[in-house]
């Protein structure tokens, strides 16, 4: 492993290759034999579980309840909302039969032609249609509103070019679907959930994001507005990390979801939907990690502290065990996720390399001489700095260090982001500079034509109209030269 | 709702109808528009989440890690283990295409014939095949063993006759898959997980179960042994509530999973798998509930205590709020899941009926006179008994009461089970009595023929060879008259 780690491609050599290798070597995920699908390995899944727990708690604090809706959607549902079908009916897995039978002409099994479905079923690419078809029976009066459900589930979109976590045919996500009595309330909910995502990214993932609203072209199929958080990867590319959609009454109308309002009039319900997925794992990796492997923010890390004894012989091990198990126990009581690794089937050097690769924030090491001296070695993963300290009181020191690392990681990412946001009004300059990555704040005339032109010329897209950026004195669109209607973030993206 | 509740069919009238109505009226689940699939509603899902959390913790304490494997399985994988294909390749959802396109002859979308898959994919009915195909790359040496993964996911088996929670085409479950270096270790793990299930059923669900091993006929397809926990529903029928399989080297051989043992020889890995599903929701309902609705064991209930004020006017409400919010807060600090319901859009009578229907274990009610007297009304859901107590110290009383209810519910179910287990050696007597339900301990000659005969004559099946039942002085098989090889539990089942 120590040798393999040494072979991790450097980011400066080939960022894409570095990413692919890291995902596999840090035991996060691997390609499945099934085209475009992935296996999320135990260590990767432990990180995803912590993302889930943290988000789930935040959702529930805003009044959201979890539920579960069917995996399969009748084909006809997709057609009920005109824009939605355009966006999602294209590349999806279609179930046409419900039985196999022994192959009459040889080995194995074949599809039984007699078991053909009357109407084909689609594996959900997203669940607006089936959920709003259900909401029809749940919503009758303003008293039934707001209705705020979320589900954690798998979804499938048939992707031609896939990359682990970033784009896979099957992925895991959560999708929230809310119904409201008024437009204002629905819009406020859509924005609220974007803030939940941004706060979570900041506080748990230590990822700074740009919040904003998508252009019409980049909107979710069926939405009136799509709010987004855009993170910047270490190569300057954008990664859309979470979206929240204000759906207006589109799905209320498509699925005939009406309610009687306080004035006793019938109205269509207003909708939002919002989701984040296992893509966040990609954002996490490409925001913090380095040439030695993963760097995990302490608030997220499944293992925050690993403790390794270095010993000669059983007697020394016994003595080290006694001291280090006490440290482990005290850290655990303080609520810190700690692993004491005294396994004898791997050498210390191997363990060090492996925990570095896996991004464990703090490593404590004690040898025989440390034991005599009452000292312990502390290594922090973010800077790889080592120091020797008194073991007495080390637990409180480690607790403080974890918070320091959390902040340091965030600050580093935030500094990188701030230093790579450029104001740019000139298209020639843009075309030249965008190759090196970064977010470009550019005046835009609001037309799909210039948007398409930028994409065709540079592969960059309008990521969003950002919050908190001045929309005055815009000048002219950098492509068309026509008066700009807003200033947008343009960037290449994953 | 109070009126609807009154309309809940009595168990004595029609047990099956009572069940179906209760599932819907208590907001647990409902039929989806998609054939055989269900929507798990927020309250039902909250119960399932608590089942998940509790089991997940127990699994992890035994060294199991969660992971995630693909939803879709190449058709050919199913054929690799001979028995397995017989059991699972029959009724399953088959994905044959990966794209829809606009209907050239009219509205909507149709399957694009150009997007036909080379090899059809099956929605997992269970994941032994795809997981062992993955384990092939993870297991090389005895150092890689044991490997113990679990996944929480959806699976699909195309069922013709479905019932909410008990038998649905799509259902949620967990499936654990372990690989071991020795037969002994694998067998021990299979038995260990059965014990985890039985302890969980006892301690959390308050469901007493019979543990045992399945007959060859009833075994999991591909297993050498299937261990089972069988619960008894209120109508005396059995409900298989969890199974754990010792798979021998069947999947190791089928997917070529070999490891180098300590003696430097290559061997095939030994396997187990084990699972429980949303079926447990059915077991829960049919073990404890009554004609007034759901009865939930306090250790499981998402809401353990509900507090309702009865008031005239805002001033009285303010005073009640002050007192009851203090009670709520104290209960919460004691770790009790409590809901304070002072919503003014529903009347107390409606709330009472609704919380009864939903099985909330303890209800506290306070009115204006109670406030003056320093009293509060306590209602326990299991017996529906009410008493008025001093509000001072009510929190400690409630904490004790919750434990008392948990034990009482279990004891009631255990008494029922014990009273409905009969020793029976005579087939005529059996045929007559089995109609009324119950578990029959009968001598069996060990042949599939007598097993089939019993099923044909009575619809009853051999549930298991139970643990802890004397296997001496067996006498003769009650059907064939031949010498019995063991004493088995025979019962009708869900």
Commentary on this structure:
Two copies of one chain form a homodimer. The first copy, chain A, is α+β, with helices and mostly antiparallel strands. Chain A folds into three domains: 15-70 and 131-288, Bira Bifunctional Protein, Domain 2 (BirA Bifunctional Protein, domain 2); 305-400, Rossmann fold (3-Layer(aba) Sandwich); 423-491, Translation Initiation Factor IF3 (2-Layer Sandwich), CATH 3.30.110.30. Helix content of chain A is 36%, strand content 27%. The first copy, chain A, has an eleven-stranded mixed sheet, with helices on both faces. A five-stranded mixed sheet of chain A has the order 18-17-19-20-21, sandwiched between helices. In chain A, strands 4-8-5 form a three-stranded antiparallel sheet. In chain A, helix 3 crosses helix 7. The radius of gyration of chain A is 26 Å and the shape is globular. The model of chain A has no long low-confidence stretch (mean pLDDT 96).
